[in-house]
Amino acid sequence: xxxxxxxxxxxxxxxxxxxxxxxxxxxxxxxxxxxxxxxxxxxxxxxxxxxxxxxxxxxxxxxxxxxxxxxxxxxxxxxxxxxxxxxxxxxxxxxxxxxxxxxxxxxxxxxxxxxxxxxxxxxxxxxxxxxxxxxxxxxxxxxxxxxxxxxxxxxxxxxxxxxxxxxxxxxxxxxxxxxxxxxxxxxxxxxxxxxxxxxxxxxxxxxxxxxxxxxxxxxxxxxxxxxxxxxxxxxxxxxxxxxxxxxxxxxxxxxxxxxxxxxxxxxxxxxxxxxxxxxxxxxxxxxxxxxxxxxxxxxxxxxxxxxxxxxxxxxxxxxxxxxxxxxxxxxxxxxxxxxxxxxxxxxxxxxxxxxxxxxxxxxxxxxxxxxxxxxxxxxxxxxxxxxxxxxxxxxxxxxxxxxxxxxxxxxxx
Length: 413
Known about the structure:
This protein is mostly helical. Among the domains are: 156 residues; 132 residues, Serine Threonine Protein Phosphatase 5, Tetratricopeptide repeat, CATH 1.25.40. 69% of the residues lie in helices and 0% in strands. It contains 21 helices and no strands. Helix 13 packs antiparallel against helix 14. The termini are far apart. The C terminus is likely disordered.
């Protein structure tokens, strides 16, 4: 059964079936549902419907791997074949999708922000805008978009969760907690609000509270999509790690963080991040690195975001073959050298020295690791990821700084 459209607008070349499909898509996107792929059926059935095909392309691009760009092509072609005479709102949305496909992420954010400013009830545009603001480390845009959503649609489900996460990333923790709790009053299944509240507790060092909170929410995620289910469990594992409950962390990893969709970049990132943290805590992941390493090898040429590349590098340093990590680092160097002005800070000042620091640390060259990571730390917010996710780079730096006596050490010792 279709649901009321959370972001109602006229759909060019639409009909009742398309309106129902778009309404379902809005709920699934904003609520991190498990049925987003049904939008592809609607797009395949209606190649002349620009908005449906634009969003189908967006879903593929949001896979965050080169496969997504390939799979988006037919939907981009459908979209671009029917641009003539579109109303301004749809035309801007399509322009944003085209710049996204061209990997001009800054311009994509600017276009989604323009839509949000002119039509703040377009929650899909706001969601995609926040997605890009997050990946670009633009905390101000993340907050502006969230505030617009709440102002224009205060009673809609999932809206306050968008705002809560933006507030937390801007260090407004009390306001973030208030918004997150209000969000679950409106829609108890708001998994992004669960996530935002977990971030508040992580920021405040409330590990016991965080583990309890996510433990109460976890049953809801079973009906959600892979990303939010795994990512919220990743946060739960962080809380248990902070509490010294190592067996619980390994249990979560084995049951919840790896193996459902190994080809998915976000699963690879979450797994790599958790295994590296376990080693930083002196724990042995055993052979859990092996399948992650194999997937990381397939990502060595993607270079979409420095944050992603750094997590692939974590895995490649554990392969037992130093050339795996070295080759990935060299390819990151080439990517950084090719940067335009909009991406230079993220790649050249944030990503590349962090990569050099990770590589040095894995090789036991702790003085070199400290030197490179100190250079990178002021620019880490531009590489993407959240405060909690980027904490791993600070943890690696802190561990390296403790070992700057010249002794060669292995990761996890």
